[in-house]
């Protein structure tokens, strides 16, 4: 025990830890852990994908939900433990690759090993005779082996041995794959630091566009360096002239398209194009996507003070299948008079009632299709103080009635053109609707490099898993040592260094080709040995 | 536009293909029951380590025919069986089963092709169509493996069985009417990404079946060697070919499928970049594709690492488990962007 402690200097401990980390066993365990760690990321709701579900999950699971949240289970792929696994794996991979690259570089330059003494102990072996001399035959055999084999000839007296090896690109492929994997991970990391992603709801209309600046987006998710201002978003502005959704007779969507105009500054309209699902606009290193769509009802409101206000407001689909949407209008009255009008409502593109009864002004309405057909705007109207004076941003898609400063005036379901009159001289007219397009602008400077790395990974894998590593040796010698008139005996042995393919069959074919490359011995000229062939043997120790 | 006449024809052919495969199963079961594992496999097992000497006058003898072990017989499975005079009942069943399987494959292929004509796009955009393609690839990969190693013919029972189950599920629970593509699927990447995924899954399915048989056989051998009683299910084991063969074919199939699967995932990322605005977003389907990929990477590493090799077959099964989970559970029960199951 004392001896052990004496030996375990920090240096040694470190060395041992390093060895253990870069061992294949550790790498395998880490790889396996990586797979296991990813599982909760798909089974539990995740903050980046669905924050509402996470909130609901935590709320319904009490302390357990909070614990999971604290431990990062709702954002697995950004958690420290997930990062720890892949960073360790990364280090292990680097530690494993460096020596292997060195070894392989040496092997590429090295000569194939000399023939073992007993070729017939190799897994595949055989022998035959030829009337050609040893020198003649070995020259012919080199020609038969061709360029795919690396061959070295060694002579010892009148015995010639050929060492042939092929399949170096197996290890090359293996190394290419792993190095490309490292490059891919680095590219992903760089992309994460410098990327940004902004999304915005854009109403149809030439004057409703946006510019690619941080402040104009509804949501803005920058990478670390982008958030520090080290990335300046490409200068362009874009407006949606027309949004089209097409459906087939069964009500299935067949096309979503946004006709857009864009240019370097607002309203320049230098270029026009169509952005569709699967066809983003690629622009100055950014990509502009059409990712969602919805409806923006237009209303005219008679305010309590007698003025008239017009408003158009995007509603957010709460049911992606039918585009039943919800939203709010906030109309400000004269300051300090408690005469604001707040409206929360829903928009049903194809209204339907749960029991199929006709739609009335007090029906509970859902939507049966995302296509617009006699849409209904259902509203609940309030008056009072919306709270615009208070500091802090408001959610434009909902009305906060919890403060008690708003008084409900009434509810109504309106069809296009219909007006409802409420107490206090307030009336609301549903004028119509315009579509909106959800646009996303993304920037990732590294993804082209990532694609190159990914292609290299596939090529490397193909090489690494399909190239066969083979060694074959030939010993060519006169049957009777020193007697050049005697026939030449050729012994062949082969070894598969990777277990892909059927080496027995491959060796047999090569064996026959080698046999055919030298003239046969005339019948009856020599002893019993002509052709032997020994296949599929376990390697002798 | 959907050609409903064509769609109905495709459905009818799909049912016919299931029926044909079922007949094939009867054939393979017959071979299994009556054959002594087929002479081919039997001789392959003992063909190792035999030295053949060809005496004087050798040049007239076709040495290769004698010296090459029967393993490497003619490439076609049908031709590799012994001459008819010595054919056993089991052998006749086996040959019948292969013919039926090939007919089944042709009908199945026609069904998928006609479905493609009916929907005017690649016919694998929902779970029904996808399962059908995976089943076809599994059978074809088995036929190809058998062409190269005729001694695995009798294993057809264990391949066609699961395929028929999958196709039955496809035709009943997973079935969906031929319909045009939603905008997100209108991309040539559908043809590339889903083809790569379906092909690799079909091949990996065959690989996992062989792995299960390998485990059954090694367990059986271990019990027999230890003198322990063999449970009922072990009764199939003595007819299975040598464990090394099963393990090797399973590995080769996985080694073939893994780069293809990697390619499929990368194509998916390229497509996602164009359709969803990012190449990777840990959508549940993506997450499980990642998990399955990592597990298969573990399999390949375990198989190449001394001391870990004994775990390799289990890891192979785990990988296929992850893939199956990704297909059934993620598609049906977990909502994500890949919601094209067509089950509503």
Account of the protein in words:
The complex is a heterodimer of chains A (541) and B (344). By secondary structure, chain A is an alpha+beta fold. Chain A has four domains: 2-104, no CATH class; 111-167 and 468-534, 2-Layer Sandwich (TATA-Binding Protein); 191-293 and 441-454, no CATH class; 300-434, no CATH class. Chain A has ten helices and 24 strands. Chain A has helices at residues 2-7, 10-22, 24-43, 51-70, 80-109, 134-145, 168-194, 224-227, 447-466, 503-516, and strands at residues 124-130, 150-156, 159-166, 196-203, 210-211, 219-222, 237-247, 253-263, 271-276, 281-283, 286-302, 308-312, 316-319, 324-331, 340-348, 351-353, 365-367, 376-384, 406-415, 419-421, 427-443, 470-478, 488-496, 531-534. In chain A, a hairpin with a 2-residue loop joins strand 2 (150-156) and strand 3 (159-166). In chain A, helix 7 packs antiparallel against helix 9. In chain B, 66% of the residues lie in helices and 1% in strands. Chain B has helices spanning 4-34, 38-46, 63-67, 89-119, 127-148, 156-171, 188-225, 243-275, 284-303, 312-333, and one strand at residues 52-54. The longest helix of chain B has 38 residues, at 188-225. Chain B has two domains: 1-42 and 73-176, no CATH class; 182-344, no CATH class. Chain B contains ten helices and one strand, in the order ααβαααααααα. The relative contact order of chain B is 0.11. Chain B is globular and about 60 Å long. Chain B has 344 residues and is mainly alpha-helical. Classes of the chains: A alpha+beta (541), B mainly alpha (344). Chains A and B meet through helix 3, strand 8, strand 11, helix 9 and helix 10 of A and strand 1, helix 3, helix 8, helix 9 and helix 10 of B. Strand 24 (531-534) of chain A pairs antiparallel with strand 1 of chain B.
Topology:
The complex is a heterodimer of chains A (541) and B (344).
Chain A: H1 2-7, H2 10-22, H3 24-43, H4 51-70, H5 80-109, E1 124-130, H6 134-145, E2 150-156, E3 159-166, H7 168-194, E4 196-203, E5 210-211, E6 219-222, H8 224-227, E7 237-247, E8 253-263, E9 271-276, E10 281-283, E11 286-302, E12 308-312, E13 316-319, E14 324-331, E15 340-348, E16 351-353, E17 365-367, E18 376-384, E19 406-415, E20 419-421, E21 427-443, H9 447-466, E22 470-478, E23 488-496, H10 503-516, E24 531-534
Antiparallel strand pairs in A: 1-23, 1-24, 2-3, 3-22, 4-6, 4-21, 5-7, 7-8, 8-9, 10-11, 11-12, 11-21, 13-14, 14-15, 15-18, 16-17, 18-19, 20-21, 22-23
Chain B: H1 4-34, H2 38-46, E1 52-54, H3 63-67, H4 89-119, H5 127-148, H6 156-171, H7 188-225, H8 243-275, H9 284-303, H10 312-333
Helix pairs in contact in B: 1-4, 1-6, 4-5, 5-6, 5-7, 7-8, 7-10, 8-9, 9-10
């Amino acid at each position: 025990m004392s001896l052990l402690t004496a030996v375990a200097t920090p240096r040694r401990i470190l060395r041992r830890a390093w060895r253990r980390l870069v061992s294949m066993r550790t790498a395998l365990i880490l790889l396996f852990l990586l797979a296991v760690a990813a599982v909760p990321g798909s089974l539990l709701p995740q903050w980046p994908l669905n924050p509402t579900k996470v909130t609901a999950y935590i709320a319904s699971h009490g302390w357990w939900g909070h614990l999971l949240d604290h431990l990062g289970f709702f954002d697995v792929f950004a958690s420290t433990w997930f990062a720890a696994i892949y960073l360790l794996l990364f280090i292990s991979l680097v530690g494993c690759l460096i020596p292997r690259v060195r070894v392989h570089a040496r092997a590429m330059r090295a000569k194939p090993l000399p023939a073992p003494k007993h070729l017939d102990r190799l897994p595949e072996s055989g022998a035959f005779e030829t009337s050609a001399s040893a020198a003649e035959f070995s020259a012919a055999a080199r020609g038969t082996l061709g360029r795919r084999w690396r061959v070295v000839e060694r002579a010892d007296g009148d015995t010639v041995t050929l060492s042939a090896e092929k399949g170096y690109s197996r290890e090359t492929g293996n190394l290419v794959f792993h190095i490309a994997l490292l490059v891919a991970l680095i590219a992903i990391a760089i992309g994460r630091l410098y990327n940004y992603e902004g999304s915005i709801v854009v109403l149809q209309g030439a004057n409703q566009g946006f510019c690619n600046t941080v402040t104009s987006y509804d949501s803005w998710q920058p990478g670390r360096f982008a958030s520090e201002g080290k990335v300046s978003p490409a200068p362009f502005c874009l407006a949606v002239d027309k949004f089209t959704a097409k459906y087939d007779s069964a009500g299935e969507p067949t096309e979503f398209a946004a006709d857009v105009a864009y240019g370097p500054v607002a309203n320049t309209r230098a270029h026009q194009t169509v952005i569709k699902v699967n066809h983003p606009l690629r622009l100055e290193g950014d990509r502009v996507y059409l990712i969602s769509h919805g409806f923006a009802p237009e209303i005219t409101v008679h305010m309590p003070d007698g003025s008239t206000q017009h408003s158009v407001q995007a509603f957010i689909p709460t049911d992606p299948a039918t585009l039943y949407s919800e939203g709010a209008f906030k109309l400000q009255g004269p300051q300090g008079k408690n005469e604001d009008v707040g409206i929360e409502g829903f928009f049903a593109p194809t209204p339907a009632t749960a029991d199929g009864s006709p739609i009335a002004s007090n029906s509970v309405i859902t939507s049966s299709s995302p296509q617009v057909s006699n849409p209904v705007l259902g509203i609940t109207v309030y008056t009072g103080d919306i709270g615009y004076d208070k500091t802090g941003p408001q959610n434009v898609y909902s009305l906060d009635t919890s403060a008690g400063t708003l008084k409900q005036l009434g509810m109504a379901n309106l069809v296009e053109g219909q007006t409802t009159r409420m107490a206090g001289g307030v009336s609301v007219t549903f004028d119509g609707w315009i579509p909106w397009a959800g646009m996303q602008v993304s920037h990732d400077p590294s993804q082209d490099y990532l694609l190159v790395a990914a292609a290299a990974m596939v090529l490397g894998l193909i090489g690494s898993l399909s190239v066969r590593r083979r060694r074959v040796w030939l010993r060519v010698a006169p049957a009777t040592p020193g007697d050049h008139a005697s026939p030449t005996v050729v012994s062949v042995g082969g070894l598969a260094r990777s277990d892909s393919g059927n080496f027995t069959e491959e060796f047999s074919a090569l064996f026959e080709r080698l046999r055919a490359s030298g003239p046969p011995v005339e019948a009856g000229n020599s002893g019993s040995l002509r052709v032997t062939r020994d296949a599929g043997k376990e390697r002798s120790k | 536009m959907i050609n409903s006449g064509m769609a109905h024809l495709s459905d009818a052919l799909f049912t016919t293909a299931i029926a044909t495969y079922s007949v094939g199963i009867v054939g393979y079961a017959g071979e299994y029951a009556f054959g002594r594992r087929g002479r081919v496999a039997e001789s392959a097992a003992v063909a190792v380590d035999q030295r053949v000497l060809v005496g004087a006058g050798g040049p007239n003898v076709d040495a290769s025919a004698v010296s090459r072990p029967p393993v490497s017989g003619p490439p076609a499975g049908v031709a590799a069986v012994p001459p008819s005079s010595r054919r056993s009942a089991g052998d006749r069943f086996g040959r019948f089963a292969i013919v039926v399987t090939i007919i089944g494959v042709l009908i199945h292929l026609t069904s998928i092709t006609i479905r493609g004509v009916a929907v005017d796009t690649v016919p694998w955009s929902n779970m029904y169509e996808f399962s059908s393609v995976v089943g076809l690839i599994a059978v074809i990969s088995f036929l190809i493996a058998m062409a190269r190693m005729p001694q695995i013919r009798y294993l057809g029972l264990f391949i066609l069985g699961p395929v028929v189950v999958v196709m039955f599920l496809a035709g009943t629970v997973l079935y969906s009417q031929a319909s045009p593509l939603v905008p997100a699927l209108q991309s040539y990447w559908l043809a590339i990404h889903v083809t790569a995924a379906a092909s690799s899954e079909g091949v990996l399915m065959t690989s996992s079946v062989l792995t299960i048989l390998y485990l059954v056989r090694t367990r059986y051998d271990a019990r027999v060697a230890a003198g322990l009683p063999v449970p009922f299910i072990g009764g199939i084991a003595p007819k299975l070919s040598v464990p090394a063969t099963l393990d090797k074919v399973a590995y080769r199939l996985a080694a073939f499928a893994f780069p293809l699967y990697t390619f499929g995932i990368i194509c998916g990322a390229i497509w996602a970049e164009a359709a969803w605005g990012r190449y990777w977003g840990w959508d549940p389907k993506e997450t499980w594709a990642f998990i399955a990929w990592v597990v298969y990477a573990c399999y390949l590493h375990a198989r190449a690492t001394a001391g870990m090799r004994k775990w390799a077959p289990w890891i192979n099964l785990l990988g296929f488990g992850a893939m199956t989970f990704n297909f059934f559970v993620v598609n049906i029960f977990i909502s994500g962007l890949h919601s094209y199951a067509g089950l509503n």
